[in-house]
Amino acid sequence: MFLHIICLLSLAVAPPLDAATSTKPGCQSRCGNLQVPYPFGIGIGSNCSMDSNFDIYCDTSSNPSRPYLANTPFEVVKIAETEIYVKDSSQQQAVACYDIKFNNLTEYSQLEIDYFQNSPYTLSDVNQITVFGCDDLAIGLRLSNDSNMSGTYGAGSSCAPYCENRVGTGSCPGIGCCQTSVSKGKKFLSIRLINMNSNWQRLRLFSCSFVFLGLMDSIGFTFRLSDLEDSTTFLNNYAALTRIPLVLDWRIGSQNCSKMQKSGGYACKENSYCVDFDDGVQGYHCRCKEGYEGTPYLSPGCRDINECKNFPCDSNGICTNTPGSYKCSCPNGYYGDGRKDGTGCFQVPGSHSKLAIGASLGAGMGFLLLLLTCFWLLKFLKQRKNKKQKEEFFKKNGGLLLQQQISTHEDILKKTRLFTAKDLDMATDCFNESRILGQGGQGTVYKGMLSDGKIVAVKKSKLVDEDQVEQFINEVVILSQINHRNVVKLLGCCLETEVPLLVYEFVSNGTLFNLIHDDNAEFPFSWNMRLKIAVEVAGALGYLHYATSLPIYHRDIKSSNILLDEKYVAKVSDFGTSRSIAVDQSHLTTLVKGTFGYLDPEYFQSSQFTEKSDVYSFGVVLVELLTGKRPISSDKTEPEKSLATRFLLCMEGNNLETILEAQVLEQGKREELTIVAKLAQRCLNLNGKNRPTMKEVVMELEGVKMSQMLSTPPQTIFQGVELLNAKSIMLSDDDYTWTSTIDITIASSDTSPFINFI
């Protein structure tokens, strides 16, 4: 509705393109967003303006600072060549509200402009009086003698809007709104609202009427007539009306040009001329002569414009700047006036000699050679910069630490590929958000496809600091040692990017946590499947503890760190907190790191992590498989939040069936469930010495699995998952060929970067 008004306001506030921007030397040139040109000046009595009438007061208490016309309440929003735009909503509006029932005034204010006596300012005729209402007449009163403010009031402009009824929409100008112009050259104006109830010969339709004064042409907009019922509602809904600028004409002196040129107070400086303000109002302006620009009121006056900067002559011509103008000519061998709007310059036949041709060719070849040299130099510098940046990233991302590990232990990383940044950009479509598989506190994982078509998961860290660099290198080194079908495989890494990157095999079927706890899962999670996964995870941990040359403790075993491939084969992931220790060590002392619900209480109290700490965490996963419950309960009615505690209480009270999942209880044989439950109970023993080793855990679970095989056909298929019963995978040191001799520590990562969430 008020788009046109807002556009007018923005034009009024915008700095004028042709306004002089010079000020007196040593004077402030700007107040807030307003550029203040001479003859105006910032500061009252500061001698920065031509006289006190042109002083601008700069209020620095607001941000940005706000400029005011001295000795008036009007804020200055723009200074033009002959006009100044000001605003003060309290001085530029009037309101009249009535009690319709009793026809009594309840609110009244009149609009009165009387600040410009004995000043160079008068009201411009571009201002308009705009009246909103249906029942009142607005009369603009003016003095019969404005010059001394001592004359009598006389009728000036008047305007009376009219409405037929109380419903519908008003328009301006039109229903409920009228406009009238303001006479040019007036210093005083008083506008009053008069109740026309008796003249209309009807009761008032609405309570209120409003008057606004300022630069608002008949721009055409609509408003709700019902808003005229209340002044607060109207002024809030149409607040743009209160910000309309008031336009004042300004001038120099009180006499016209001919008289001022004879007196000693003539203000126009060098290269300028005088223009009378108006036939009926004395005063004048100064303007720069054609071909000059600047401030005509300050010495040395207007400056010559160098028109040749924009080359107004013919493309073959020669431009020569002259005071206030320019000259065009033609070079030797050409004829014409050299002007674009004239005959231009034409070559004289036969004047282009072989020497000129040779010079042109030589200049062209030289320029081409220069361009080629610059091109190759820029390319060389860019390549050098990229190489240096990659070297810095390599160092920052732990490349030197990785090189040290490689030089110390030759077997490390010999099967691990070092990817380039370009390889991984292509694989992940420049790490497109649509490729994101998962996000965690330590980083983001993207799905990618290598140039050979292999699908991979790329783990990209969020932040880089010294601790995270150590985590990154630790995960590379530990995963490079491991060669087991139930441990996620590291394919390679990239160190030349801003953040370190790891490339893993892609594991497509989510996490064990999701499979256990997703109530909407379509895949039936049978007891046989749970037992198979438990055997696979236990086998992987047994491998880490006993089959490597140096035992590796995972330190963050949980169901969300166990991934499932397309055949639901379990793969242990996230080795960000893993540690390898010397053979003669029984434990390592570290800051406590892990996940609540899975954390070994003994480790939590002593800060000493042993192989039995991993056993405890596996015990919690085993209980999850048996019960289908989360490790930490969110049920407020549950007396024990810890799943491990609730399970142990059930075992002590011989109430195992009360906590087992219904599907497990239905499908599993009681003997099998009892054996696995008692094994979980032993794993969760608060005294780590009384817990079984992972090798013992594997043997017991394999025993249960073997008993199933002996009582079922040689090959059983569960929902597309093939379980082969040909032989047990009992652990022995002969089953694995990889060895390790390193000792690296890193902090925990809560990202499982190999899961397909799509």
TrEMBL record:
Residues passing through the membrane, by range: 355-378
Cellular compartments annotated: Membrane
Stored SMART domains: EGF, EGF_CA, S_TKc
Pfam families: EGF_CA, GUB_WAK_bind, Pkinase
Residues of the signal peptide: 1-19
Residue ranges constituting the EGF-like domain according to the UniProt record: 304-337
UniProt topology in membrane: Single-pass type I membrane protein
Keywords: ATP-binding, Disulfide bond, EGF-like domain, Glycoprotein, Kinase, Membrane, Nucleotide-binding, Phosphoprotein, Repeat, Serine/threonine-protein kinase, Signal, Transferase, Transmembrane, Transmembrane helix
Domain Protein kinase, chain residue ranges per copy: 431-710
Gene Ontology CC entries for this record: membrane
Reaction catalyzed: L-seryl-[protein] + ATP = O-phospho-L-seryl-[protein] + ADP + H(+); L-threonyl-[protein] + ATP = O-phospho-L-threonyl-[protein] + ADP + H(+)
Listed PROSITE patterns: ASX_HYDROXYL, EGF_3, EGF_CA, PROTEIN_KINASE_DOM, PROTEIN_KINASE_ST
Entry-linked InterPro entries: EGF, EGF-like_Ca-bd_dom, EGF-type_Asp/Asn_hydroxyl_site, EGF_Ca-bd_CS, Kinase-like_dom_sf, NOTCH1_EGF-like, Prot_kinase_dom, Ser/Thr_kinase_AS
Molecular functions (GO terms): ATP binding; protein serine/threonine kinase activity
Stated role: Serine/threonine-protein kinase that may function as a signaling receptor of extracellular matrix component. Binding to pectin may have significance in the control of cell expansion, morphogenesis and development.
Protein name as annotated: Wall-associated receptor kinase-like 1
Species this protein is from: Forsythia ovata
